[in-house]
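Assess this one:

_____
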Amino acid sequence: MTTTQPYPPGTKWTWTGRQYRTPPFIEELVLHWEPNGSPLSDDYLPEEADALELWRRWVDECADRAHWDWPALYRPGEVPILWSVTTPRVVGVFELAPHAVDRRGAAAPRIRENFLTHYTDPVHAETGERLNWARLPVLDRGWSSEHANKGGFIQEATGWKPSPLQEVMDVRQIGAAAGLYLPELVAG
């Protein structure tokens, strides 16, 4: 029996712009994940605040924020994840990922532009196979002397990263599994 795996590193895709005639893009694509509030690391360098310190600040501020703001949509500890499509070096294309869910839109539906708003469906550069968005690799995020990625402290502290297009992360579950600090659960 074989199982479907993420596309291997180096897999090239080709697509064109929808609005303007552009030469075809031929690039590797990945999914970029950003849990709500994780850009707090933008104000630091790894030598100024390590991953565990940023984890503590982030969970104090964000672990239950979505639940407080939208209690009917999120349980305590659920943090929404924003998904974008980009290249492994995070240069060039950077658009919201198609098929990503934003529960907050349920209360006030809105049309969200995404990669497919601006570009045609990517196809494999050699075989012509249409891209399966759930098989795109999820970009690793780091926070160390070698990597200072936005929000990278989360993966660095926990060893965890989401599955493609996963809509939320359960901070309490992931933090507990990693043996990390978690704030007291406050009824709200």
